[in-house]
Write a structure and sequence with these properties.
By secondary structure, this protein is an alpha+beta fold. It is 16% helix and 27% strand. It has six helices and 16 strands. The longest helix is centred in the first third of the chain and has 14 residues, at 44-57.
Length: 278
């Protein structure tokens, strides 16, 4: 009967309907349009207040990670098409359970303290304000806070890229992994100059880049004619292939921390960059 029904089709609208019933689509109908990816600024005051309230009402026993996720209103459930970002908080005496996943991650510490560490593959990495800690994909990691103040950091993951396949995640057998290496082990043993007999467990070892002044000041970013004003702690996103420039009208230096997908796009031959006239 399907062949007879198909044989009776004499116009494109009927053919489109026949294809749609079988989850097919004719290219002549065009591709489904998606909402445009727009720039957006998340205000630090909103993020911080949300995190502090979450610390009151969301115990760590109820969630694997206490994070506030950044969601771009033009994209719905995500910040961008390639990078995921959220802001995480661990209160004094708390820890976030150990796990690993196929997405790689960075931790940019906004508020840190002695006694707070991220543990990666059995090595503790101190968390101080401005520190950048890398968590290569499929490395065991957990976080603990033995200080007397909240510890807050920015999580940046390539999970949107990894999800083109499937994001895998697995919990460690215990809540926390044992400490098996001293602080600074990766920096000393697995850096550019390292003993030849020491092999890396992962292609990319974890590292900590300490810097107490990694972000400060205020400024503005103009993206396709739209002005985004920002101050310390604010987070903003710039869509790909958008004309953009940065400005600082204040009387002091401003430092931005940025995370970009250009290494992946370059490796795939998809990265493009063009300078403007100004």
């Amino acid at each position: 009967m399907q062949q007879q029904a198909l044989g009776q089709i004499t116009d494109v609208n009927s053919l489109d309907a026949w294809l749609a019933e079988r989850h097919l689509n004719g290219h002549w109908r065009g591709m489904e349009s998606r909402p445009p990816f727009r720039p957006f600024v998340w205000r630090w005051n909103d993020i911080y207040q949300g995190l502090m309230k979450a610390a009151e009402v969301v115990p760590m026993s109820d969630t694997p990670r206490r994070t506030v996720q950044l969601r771009n209103p033009s994209l719905g459930d995500r910040m961008s098409e390639t990078i995921h970002m959220s802001v995480q908080c661990v209160m004094p005496g708390e820890f976030a359970k150990a796990h690993h996943h196929t997405a790689a991650a960075i931790r940019f510490v906004i508020q840190g303290a002695p006694g707070a560490d991220t543990v990666v593959e059995g090595e503790p990495f101190p968390m101080r304000p401005g520190d950048l800690i890398t968590t290569p994909n499929w490395t065991w990691h957990d976080h603990y806070n033995r200080s007397d103040q909240p510890v807050i950091w920015l999580d940046g993951l390539d999970s949107r890229l990894v999800s083109l396949g499937k994001v895998l995640q697995e919990d460690f057998p215990q809540d926390q992994q044992p400490i098996e290496r001293p602080v600074g082990y990766s920096a000393h043993a697995l850096a550019r100059a390292r003993p030849a007999w020491l092999a890396r467990d992962h292609p990319t070892p974890p590292f900590r880049y300490p810097w107490e002044e990694a972000f400060r000041g205020q400024g503005e970013a103009e993206v396709d004619g739209e002005l985004l004003e920002w101050s310390q702690g604010d987070i903003f996103v710039i869509p790909p292939w958008s004309w953009h420039k940065h400005g600082n009208r204040a009387g002091q230096d401003a430092i931005l921390f940025s995370m970009s997908d250009w290494p992946t796009l370059s490796a795939l031959g998809l990265y493009r960059e063009e300078g403007g006239r100004e």
